[in-house]
Fold this sequence. Notes:
5-stranded mixed β-sheet, Arc Repressor Mutant, subunit A, Tc1-like_DDE_dom, 9 strands, HTH_SB, alpha/beta, two-stranded antiparallel sheet, disordered C terminus
Amino acid sequence: MAKTKELSKDTRNKIVDLHQVGKTESAIGKQLGLKKSTVGAIIRKWKTYKTTDNLPRSGAPRKISPRGVKMITRTVSKNPRTTRGDLVNDLQRAGTKVTKPTISNTLRRQGLKSCSARRVPLLKPVHVQARLKFAREHLDDPDEDWENVIWSDETKIELFGKNSTRRVWRTKNAELHPKNTIPTVKHGGGNIMLWGCFSAKGPGRLIRVKERMNGAMYREILSENLLPSARALKMKRGWVFQHDNDPKHTARATKEWLRKKHFKVLEWPSQSPDLNPIENLWRELKSVLPSDSPKTSLL
């Protein structure tokens, strides 16, 4: 049976007003286009409670007491990686038996949601200071300057499945709080390495690195792909090249090669892949690749 539309507060008040001036339920219903039973229910409610407002509806009692809610909220606030199973066990020891969905619903009402822990670079104080310096130096740079940057990086595509994830309980916009992140370091195994670049005008070249990359190979990649990408993207004169502080990128031979080619290089703070917009491009690339089959055939 379809749910009937709730009467507006004005209509309910009008029913009471007409009743008070002596009109019958049938007459009120006919005047307002309502059923007599509906009019009668509004009048009885007004006589009993002296109001036409909606009253609190009864429902199933909460399975977790206010004290229990405070306990599990305090637990996940101290340790966001606490699992629902851990919380179920904690409450059971306190005499309350609940299910994992009940834990999720309760914490959600407290503004806490289970999310995948964000992976962020492992930062030392010197890295933090370098990042702040970079941000302050470029705070007022016009959009045109950033549009004239070619961003580059290497990434890896896992051959079989995705990297494991950890879930944390957090509030909205707290994904980068240290308690809610997983520190990461570079390198790993079982993957395909790619080098790519892009600018505000679109993607540049994307190539597969088939061998272990060293400084010489990196310079060869730049020699064969960087300038052709800049030409294809129709970069303006004086465009700037960005790469991170990987040892291959900062090697003396690489710096000298870039200098001889007259490429302007953006000074980059260490341990700052999250500042490079190409990371968003990598994320999009990986999101469209199947996670249950080898990806070598796609490249």
